[in-house]
Amino acid sequence: AALQARLGRGLAQLPLAFARGRPSVALHVRRGDLERGNFRATPDTYYYTWVERIRRHLPEADVHVWSSTRLGQWHGKAVPWWNASDFDGYRSRGMQVHLDSPDLAVVWAHLALAHVFVMAQSSFSFVPATLNPYCVIFPGAIRRPLDSWLDGSRKSGSFDAELKGCMARANGHF
């Protein structure tokens, strides 16, 4: 907790795109380094479903998506596996999409300081998730999740209560 607080203070100095006075939700949608169909590319529907659930409790949430459309490599040639239009589903659902951000520290700051952070199956997600003191939802395929994280792949009858409890850690911080 002390390390979280110390590193979080440094990240808080970076410029954030979140709307003031509203709950912030950050999604890391891993795409750029993966070809289409790769099992580590969590389906868009997973993220859409999570945002719907979160908005049921936080209808005024300011939702942002971070991802990449960088070119992949296939037999030594650059291949464009993803493009900006692949994120139109997020935009049409009222989410702000940030692609190919040049300053990865600023991206991490958003993910680490969001009131709710929906992770990707990714080491890039893991680092800011460990720094996030609020609500972290992981896709179930993380080897060592922190005890406070919510397993987003699990289905149980108490899931709604668990989500409320997770989001309650951010109460008073909007």
Q: Topology of this structure?
A:
Layout: H1 2-11, E1 24-28, H2 44-57, E2 62-67, E3 72-74, E4 77-79, H3 88-92, E5 96-99, H4 104-113, E6 116-118, H5 123-131, E7 135-138, E8 150-151, H6 159-168
Parallel strand pairs: 1-2, 1-6, 2-5, 6-7, 7-8
Antiparallel strand pairs: 3-4
Helix pairs in contact: 4-5
How would you characterize the overall build of this protein?
This is Alpha-1,2-fucosyltransferase. This protein has helices spanning 2-11, 44-57, 88-92, 104-113, 123-131, 159-168, and strands at residues 24-28, 62-67, 72-74, 77-79, 96-99, 116-118, 135-138, 150-151. The protein is of the alpha/beta class and 174 residues long. 33% of the residues lie in helices and 17% in strands. The strands form two sheets. It has a six-stranded parallel β-sheet with strand order 5-2-1-6-7-8, with helices on both faces. The chain has a two-stranded antiparallel sheet with strand order 3-4. It has six helices and eight strands; from the N terminus they run αβαβββαβαβαββα. The chain is globular and about 50 Å long. Strand 3 (72-74) and strand 4 form a beta hairpin. The two termini are 20 Å apart. The longest helix is centred in the N-terminal third of the chain and has 14 residues, at 44-57. It has a single domain, classed as 3-Layer(aba) Sandwich (Rossmann fold), CATH 3.40.50. Helix 4 packs across helix 5 (123-131).
